[in-house]
Design brief:
The protein folds into 5 domains: about 100 residues, no CATH class; about 120 residues, Leucine-rich Repeat Variant (Alpha Horseshoe), CATH 1.25.10; about 90 residues, no CATH class; about 30 residues; about 70 residues, no CATH class. The N terminus and C terminus are likely disordered. With about 475 residues, the chain is mainly α. It is elongated, with a radius of gyration of 30 Å. Helix 3 packs parallel to helix 5 and helix 10 packs antiparallel against helix 11. The protein contains 17 helices and 8 strands. The strands form 4 sheets. It has a two-stranded antiparallel ribbon with strand order 1-2. Belongs to the DNA mismatch repair MutS family. This is DNA mismatch repair protein MutS core domain-containing protein. GO terms for molecular function: ATP binding; ATP-dependent DNA damage sensor activity; mismatched DNA binding; small GTPase binding. One of its GO terms (cellular component) is MutSalpha complex. InterPro entries: ARM-like, ARM-type_fold, DNA_mismatch_repair_MutS_core, DNA_mismatch_repair_MutS_sf, MutS, P-loop_NTPase, XPO2_C, XPO2_central.
Length: about 475
């Protein structure tokens, strides 16, 4: 099917609105910055003015973001030379901007540009990014590190994904500077392991470490001891902590709410992927035959979204003599892609069924670990609180009817215990099970947990 791809830069609407606003604010000043940005946007370039000009009648951050979005949207229509020319401007927008939205969009655009494929091959080789890859990785890591807390660091997974893409693209060219990057990645991993709040960020940082180790050690085997000594200690610490399942990936990749089996782990999935690879090879052969018979340059347009119109033949906008019979495209590749999605879904349910076969064992294991988790939590809390505190006394089944119960005397909230100015603290007793009721009303009329409220307030709550 012949297909001409046309589009209107939607970003021109906010450009027009902002230029109108600037004209109202300052009628006597010529609108060159806005016009220049519109022109650069049409050419796929990023304006180099800094954000402070937005307050001086110059380029507003929204215009920068809009230009980056324009480039992101139409990246597949630009040549490799044009993309290489615009990458330094994207890096500058990433580095110079303090605006969260601006540098995030810049990181997204960089990752997407470096991930472009043409004819099934990655467009950019390691030689193409050799000159700016270390600088770009340094900028990305600085943006990640300055967030501070584990939650804030892991919040922006787009930055980590961009760093992963740069490492995968740069490969062996990172050997001269790999050690500094390795240390920074390990430091970030140590911080986020304290509170793994974003599975995507966790995945990208592990993929980054894996790619860095793979490419650097393959190009320079003498670096293996450095990786071993650098990674052993932090990984040991993580494994000794309470393991978050989002930090440990073993047999399959976890992403986009799908369980994707690794190669060799699921026969049905491997068969479908082999079929897809064979069909892609057939597509390339068919494309060459079309080019030879029609005498024109053709390429595949690939959406990579869903299963509809995944591959279509693309021609230039001015191409003539397009065959009239090109009215539909075959559904073979669509069918294979749908088989892949079905295989992934079936794999997930097969995993569930395997667990379900030994449900009794898993249920007992969960109960044991749940009790151990409670015991360890109580022990850690008691040791960390200091005085006044006590360690709970665990009694046998002979005291009671064999069911679970607890009996706490003189409960105190730890924040009030360490406050020396609180002299009239009234402790509270809480008992549940045994010779009293097994069910307690946990909320008062205002929705607060009554037992917790009593220990925090230091007084008996009103009835």
């Amino acid at each position: 099917m012949g297909r001409l791809r046309l589009g209107v830069p939607y970003g021109l609407l906010p450009v027009g609105l902002l230029s109108s606003y600037a004209k109202q604010q300052k009628e006597n000043s010529p609108p060159e910055p806005v016009i220049r940005l519109v022109r650069s946007q049409r050419a796929g370039n990023i304006d180099e003015d800094d954000e402070e000009q937005g307050a001086k009648g110059g380029v507003h951050p929204i215009l920068k973001v809009d230009a980056i979005r324009f480039l992101y949207t139409f990246r597949n229509q630009l040549t490799k030379q044009q993309l290489l020319a615009v990458l330094p401007l994207l890096i500058k927008a990433l580095d110079d901007s303090e605006n969260y939205v601006t540098y995030t969009y810049a990181a997204i655009a960089i990752e997407k540009v470096l991930g472009i494929r043409q004819n099934g091959q990655i467009l950019f080789a390691q030689a193409d990014v050799r000159d700016f890859a270390p600088q770009l990785l340094g900028v990305l890591m600085s943006k990640i590190e300055r967030a501070g807390t584990p939650e804030k660091i892991a919040e922006n997974d787009h930055l980590m994904k961009a760093a992963m893409r740069v490492i995968i693209t740069a490969r062996q060219t990172l050997i001269p500077t790999y050690q500094q990057l390795l240390n920074r990645l390990v430091a970030v991993l140590g911080v986020i392991s304290k509170n793994a709040s974003n599975p995507k960020f966790d995945q990208y940082i592990f993929e980054s470490l894996s790619a860095l180790m793979r490419f650097v050690t393959s190009g320079s085997p003498t670096t293996i001891p450095t990786f071993e000594s650098t990674l052993f200690e932090p990984f040991t610490i993580i494994l000794m902590q309470d393991i978050d399942p989002r930090l440990i990936k073993r047999y399959f990749l976890l992403g986009h709410d799908e369980l994707i089996p690794r190669e060799g782990k699921d026969e049905a999935y491997d068969e479908v992927m082999t079929e897809i690879e064979e069909l892609e090879e057939g597509l390339e052969e068919a494309l060459k035959k079309f080019e030879k018979s029609l005498g024109m340059k053709l390429s595949w347009w690939h959406s990579a979204v869903g299963t509809e119109e995944i591959y279509m033949i693309e021609t230039s906008a001015g191409q003539k003599n397009i065959p009239k019979e090109w009215t539909r495209n075959g559904g073979t590749k669509v069918e294979a892609r749908e088989k892949r999605n079905t295989a992934i879904k079936k794999f997930k349910f097969r995993i569930y069924n395997e667990f379900d076969e030994d449900r009794g064992i898993w249920l007992r294991a969960i109960r044991v670990f749940a009790k151990l988790d409670c015991l360890f939590s109580l022990a850690k809390s008691s040791a960390a609180i200091g005085e006044p505190s006590c360690r709970p006394k665990f009694v046998g089944e002979e005291e009671g009817d064999g069911s679970a119960w607890f009996d706490f005397k003189s409960l105190r909230h730890p924040t009030l215990c360490v406050n020396g100015s609180v002299e009239d603290f009234i402790p509270n007793d809480v008992k549940l099970g045994g010779d009293v009721g097994k069910i307690a009303l946990l909320t008062a009329e205002n929705g607060l947990f009554t037992g917790l409220l009593s220990t925090m307030s230091g007084c008996t709550p009103p009835v």
